């Protein structure tokens, strides 16, 4: 059954959060930013870090791509890190176990602190190429990938896995899920993030938090993070309380709302989460654009930031009109004009 919010449960503020540790990496506050394909570049991660995220993962990268990529102007952003970005995770996706291991070594060489294996992507194109969530249908291959990747990465660097609860809701799919989960832990994987939907569900319907609770009960001594339907600070703390997971990885809920990490910290401390006013939103959006421009250069930055502007617009009282304004952004001047027009005065 999908998760339901109990009306008799103690308030979120009463929860005692345990600091999150993954292998040798101490993270602390157990609300982190997940890897987000096409989004979680250095600029987005830096904004999230400044607003309270203790850890973030880069957008997923293909093993084949990693073996070929060079530090050129159009590709440098994939492997770009700095000291403020630590600890940082590098997420890897592919089909062939041996190539997976070589890709993981490239992420280590680039300086990532944690290597994450993607067994969860539900996109049809990815599944059709036997990547991402497809591996949940073939436990032997999935476990071969996990073993080879762990062996290829230095022992001091944690290796983690991101997976969904299975390909579908069948008993056979659940058996495969637990076979893989048990096997990756036995192969030395340090933590697993579990999304409460199946691959076939993609993002439709509620995430099954009761399944996450069952996973944590079955593996009480292992580090399990939960994911799915985390769109507010209250959601993050409620998932930890109701499922017992060691931490949560915020994915879509962090796009255009990096304040979710700051608000989660406020709520965990017994306070009331503070929603960002328009001036605060403008400050963060200005920072985000400036960071992105450093990463991509002035010619590429404007069009690439439109998708972020569309997400940020959801926070605005006149979201539809602000969204339309961001869609037309071409450069820094356009971006700042939108901020001046729509964010100068509180409404």
Number of strands: 11
Q: What is the annotated CATH architecture of the largest domain?
A: Alpha-Beta Barrel
Q: What is the name of the CATH superfamily of the largest domain?
A: Aldolase class I
Q: What is the CATH level 1 assignment of the largest domain?
A: Alpha Beta
The number of helical runs is 13
Q: What is the domain tally?
A: 2
CATH topology of the largest domain: TIM Barrel
What level of helicity do the residues show?
Answer: 40-55%
Contiguous runs where pLDDT drops below 50 for at least 5 residues: 1-13
Radius of gyration: 20 Å
Q: How does the overall form come out from the CA principal axes?
A: globular
Mean of residue pLDDT? 90
Q: Which secondary-structure class do the elements indicate?
A: alpha/beta
Proportion of beta-strand residues:
5-15%
Q: What sequence of helices (H) and strands (E) makes up the elements? A: EEEHEEHEHEHHEHEHEHEHHHHH
Could you tell me how far the N terminus lies from the C terminus, measured between alpha carbons in angstroms?
Answer: 41 Å
Main pleated-sheet profile: 9 strands, parallel
